[in-house]
Every structure is written in structure tokens, then in C-alpha cells.
Automatic annotation (TrEMBL):
UniProt keyword terms in alphabetical order: Signal
Leader sequence segment: 1-17
Protein name stated in the entry: Arylsulfotransferase (ASST)
Entry superkingdom: Bacteria
Keyword Signal: yes
Length: 546
């Protein structure tokens, strides 16, 4: 009996030591694209596509690099395609990448000759060839005078917005032409089916024609009906300071958007928001960040509003906050270290429960000057803003909106470019990620599995222990970083972290995860991302089972 018991305990060890992120397959290595856009897309047939839009200095011809792997993760296609749209640079963007009928659909915003144009590109998901290329929306030329109004007149910028329905092949496109003098022609909504046929199209009318400015916030598709959330306002110069959120509805076959003011949002100073439909509760959920101060680091609060999609009336509203994360932040970093994270995404579950992810978005302002002479006269100076993506918090809620648990995940990621705002992570979902100066490695992924919720990001190993002492190292470059994951379960507010690819000390190297371009398939519980050696410029795809 004395011999049997130890043997039984040894037999149990693998069950407890088995990694949460199980490697299924890896691709061969290939060169990394360091400047451009990129995205991974898992198709319903089990195929995987890596789609990259490289920026090539001195080359005016645009390119799309495609890699396709079959259901067994074997390479099938590797080629460069030349699309019809013009040269793509940082002024343009990939507004959406999604699957439709087994193909990849790319919606590309090409700002050619100051005329924003939305191109639709359909690529065969098996052969990697063009199946369709057309233009589905344009905005008139942005002249110098119009650009001045955008920069100094408080006019919201023109643009395109795309929403793919997660429950069907339907997708909606909203065009914001903020420069047109007709207030009722500034925002146009179109709905398409999986065959890329237009189902409905209509303009979003200003309520009673009383608001000069209209901004797009978000949209959701419910049974071939598009719900579009907007922010209508006036300034003191344009008829008296006033603002309100409006919800427009475009029903299948309609030629105009029916707009209703949401009276319960009157005079809320809105930063940004999200709109999602919860099939389990049959309610629209509107999550917004309301600011209470001005400046580059505005203070505010998060409000969750439940709306009846039929009547567009408020059913309930709650101001939410990850209190357990706030307590843990002060416990680790001092009594003045209040948690100031803003909502960046939220995720729905099949049973109606959901998770809200917060991130502390701190803007750093750098001022520099050149000093000359004994008097200390400043001959030149400048100001630069950069963002530090700081501590994360995740709150779990049941279907009734009751908070179950919050988790706190300290980190410091310094961005060399861009100033993300509230909900930036949600707005990036479904689009291509900007690849620039290594910033693409300074983001997180949230795997919303049926039974597991996992968060991943890159960090240095020393922060594992430094955080417990109330200290933390800021990540400027990623050469010493490794990929970590956090299983969000249990009662501990500060979850334990583990290496995604195994202990770096034992490997004697550093491996990163390009989580910003990864894709999770909840049906097959398969997560695909890019694995990179921090010291090399070669990368590979890796398929993992959470």
C-alpha cells in the first residue's frame, strides 16, 4: 500500500501540470512584415488565412500577401496579390476582414487624392485568388478648407464603419460624410447579405433637424435590421451647447433610417461607446464611457444601458466599475494608486452572461526644446504625445447584470505611435492591425471560451515578482519579453501567469505572441496567432487549444 500511493500521486501529476495553452501545430518560419497591416482569419472549413498589407518604401504598387493553411494546418497557398486600389499607407486603413461563404472579405479605405474610397475585395478562401473587387462607398474630396474645419472647427472626421453580424453572413457599412452642408445626408447606412447584394440603404436624419453635428458610435445587426448608435450635438456657436445619443433603425427593404432620441442620455459627455445585441436576453446592450473632465487624460465612468430593440426605450442602466481591481491596485502600488482604467471591450456568452475588459490608457506628453546662449533662450521646441497602455481589469457578470468576479492584471506597455481611446480594442476587432515599430506586440488578447476565459500579453519575466513588491517595469522595446497567459478563474483577484510557449529561462531565448492579429474559433476551441523570436525577424503561425 505504501508503494501504490506514491505511484498514484505520480500518475496524477500530468493532469495538474498540463498546460492550459496546448500547442496543436506550428508553421514553418517566414520573414516578418514590420510595417503595414495584418490579420489572421480562421474559416469555417478549418482553413486558416494570414493576410498582410505591406508598406513598401519607394513602391507605388499596392500588395496583399496571402498565406493559406488547410484544416490540418499544412501550407496550401503563399502568394502576393496586386489589388485595384491605389497605394495604401498609414492614412488609409483596413476597415474590416471577415469570412463570407468560405471567402475572405476585405473592406479597404483608400484615401486617394484626398477622396476617401471604400473598396470591397473578395479573396477565394481555398485558392487565394481575387473573386471580386469593387467600390461600395466614396466621400467627396477633403479640400484644404474642409481639412481646416476638421482640425480646428470641431467637425468630426469623415470615414467608413463596418459591422459584421456574428450570427450570420450579413454585414453593414456606414458612411459618415461630415462635410456635406445637408444635415440629413451626413450619415448613410447600407446592409449587405453573404452574396454581397445590397438589402437596404438609407440616410440617417438629424432629429427635427436641430443638431448640426453627428458622430457615429457603433452598430448592431439583428434579423436583417441595422441598429446604428449616433451622437448628435451642437456647440455654443452652432445653436447652444447640447448633446444627446440617437438610435437609428434601418429595416430590410427600407430607404431611410428611422431615428429616435434616447432621452436618458441627454447632455452626457460621451467619449465612445459600444452597441451589442444579446440573443439570450433579446436586448440591446449599450456600454459607454462618460467623461467628467477635459484634457488628454479625462476622468469618467462606465455606464451599461439595456435597451428594448423594438421600442428603443431604456429598460435598465447601471454604472459599473471593477471594485476588486481597484482595491488590489491600491494594495500593491499604494493607497493613491486608484484604478483608472477605461472600458476597451466587452464579450457576450451564449447564456447571456458577459465580461467587460478595462485598460488604463495614460497619455504621456513630452516637451522638448533647444537652448542656446547664456540667457537660456529657447530657439525651438516641440510637444509629442505617446500612450502608455497600463493595468488591465476584467469583470465577469451574469445574464442579469450582477457582477460575479473581477480580476486585476498589472502591466506597462509604452507605445511609440498612436493614442488609443476607450473601446479601441473592440473597434480593432474584425479589422487589420497596424504593424509599426513593434507596437503591435504591445497589446492583449482575450479568449472568450465556453469554459475558460484567458487573457494574454507580452511582458518581461521579472515583472512576475516585481508586481508583488509594488513595482513594475515599463516595456519600451520587446526584445526581452515573452508571451504570458492568465487563466481567469477562482477567487484570487491577481491571477497567476504562465508562459505561453514554455519557461523562457529553460529555453534561453524569448518568444513573443502577436496577439493583436490572432483569431479564436469558439466552435473548435482553437486559437491561432503569430509566434515570434524576439531576436530574429522571422515568425511562424501557431495553433493552440486553450
Amino acid at each position: 500500500m505504501r508503494k501504490i500511493l506514491p505511484l498514484c500521486l505520480l500518475a496524477m501529476v500530468p493532469a495538474f501540470a498540463f498546460p492550459q495553452m496546448k500547442k496543436i501545430a506550428e508553421s514553418a518560419m517566414f520573414p516578418e512584415t514590420e510595417d503595414g497591416f495584418g490579420r489572421i482569419l480562421q474559416l469555417k472549413n478549418g482553413y486558416t488565412m494570414l493576410i498582410v498589407f505591406p508598406f513598401r518604401r519607394g513602391v507605388d504598387v499596392p500588395a496583399i500577401d496571402i498565406k493559406i493553411y488547410d484544416a490540418k494546418h499544412k501550407p496550401k497557398v503563399s502568394k502576393r496579390l496586386v489589388p485595384k486600389y491605389g497605394k495604401l499607407d498609414h492614412n488609409g486603413g483596413i476597415e474590416a476582414i471577415f469570412e463570407s461563404n468560405g471567402d475572405a472579405v476585405l473592406l479597404v479605405n483608400d484615401i486617394n487624392k484626398r477622396t476617401p474610397t471604400l473598396h470591397r475585395v473578395v479573396i477565394d478562401g481555398v485558392k487565394g485568388i481575387f473573386k471580386k473587387q469593387d467600390v461600395i462607398a466614396t466621400i467627396p474630396e477633403v479640400t484644404v478648407g474642409k481639412a481646416f474645419a476638421l482640425g480646428f472647427g470641431g467637425v468630426p472626421g469623415p470615414g467608413f464603419y463596418v459591422h459584421k453580424d456574428p450570427n450570420s453572413d450579413l454585414y453593414a457599412v456606414t458612411t459618415l460624410n461630415s462635410m456635406t452642408p445637408d444635415r440629413n445626408k451626413r450619415l448613410e447606412v447600407a446592409l449587405y447579405n453573404g452574396e454581397h447584394e445590397e438589402i437596404s440603404r438609407g440616410f440617417y436624419h438629424s432629429p427635427e433637424d436641430k443638431y448640426k453635428y453627428l458622430e457615429y458610435i457603433d452598430m448592431a445587426v439583428v434579423d436583417q435590421t441595422v441598429h446604428v448608435l449616433g451622437y448628435a450635438y451642437n456647440t455654443r456657436r452652432s445653436g447652444g451647447k447640447e448633446n444627446i445619443m440617437v438610435l437609428g433603425t434601418l429595416v430590410k427593404g427600407d430607404t431611410s433610417v428611422d431615428v429616435k432620441e434616447l432621452d436618458f442620455t441627454h447632455d452626457l459627455e460621451l467619449d465612445r461607446g459600444l452597441l451589442k445585441y444579446n440573443p439570450a436576453t433579446e436586448k440591446l446592450m449599450m456600454l459607454v464611457y462618460v467623461t467628467k473632465s477635459k484634457g488628454v487624460n479625462p476622468k469618467g465612468y462606465t455606464r451599461l444601458i439595456y435597451i428594448d430593440p423594438a421600442t428603443r426605450t431604456q429598460l435598465a442602466a447601471d454604472d459599473i466599475f471593477p471594485e476588486e481591481a481597484d482595491i488590489k491596485s491600491r494594495e500593491l502600488f499604494g493607497r493613491k494608486a486608484d484604478y483608472e482604467g477605461r472600458p476597451v471591450n466587452f464579450f457576450l456568452n451564449a447564456d447571456g452572461s458577459f465580461a467587460v475588459v478595462y485598460e488604463d490608457l495614460g497619455v504621456r506628453i513630452w516637451q522638448s526644446s533647444t537652448i542656446a546662449g547664456s540667457t537660456g533662450t529657447s530657439l525651438s521646441g516641440g510637444t509629442r504625445m505617446n500612450t502608455e497602455l497600463k493595468d488591465l481589469a476584467v469583470s465577469m457578470y451574469d445574464a442579469n447584470g450582477k457582477i460575479i468576479k473581477s480580476y486585476f492584471l498589472p502591466k506597462r506597455h509604452y507605445l511609440w505611435g498612436g493614442q488609443p481611446r476607450a473601446f479601441y480594442h473592440a473597434h480593432r476587432a474584425g479589422r487589420a492591425t497596424r504593424l509599426y515599430k513593434g507596437d503591435q506586440y504591445k497589446s492583449f488578447a482575450f479568449i472568450n471560451g465556453k469554459d475558460k476565459k484567458i487573457l494574454l500579453f507580452n511582458d518581461v519575466e521579472e515583472n512576475t515578482k516585481r508586481v508583488l513588491k509594488g513595482k513594475i517595469t515599463t516595456i519600451m522595446g520587446v526584445g526581452e519579453c515573452d508571451a504570458f497567459y492568465f487563466l481567469l478563474e477562482g477567487e484570487e483577484v491577481l491571477p497567476k501567469r504562465e508562459y505561453v510557449y514554455g519557461d523562457a529561462v529553460k529555453r534561453k531565448d524569448h518568444n513573443l505572441g502577436l496577439f493583436a492579429v490572432g483569431d479564436y474559433d469558439p466552435v473548435n476551441n482553437l486559437y491561432v496567432t503569430i509566434k515570434a523570436d524576439a531576436e530574429q525577424k522571422n515568425i511562424r503561425l501557431i495553433w493552440m487549444e486553450p
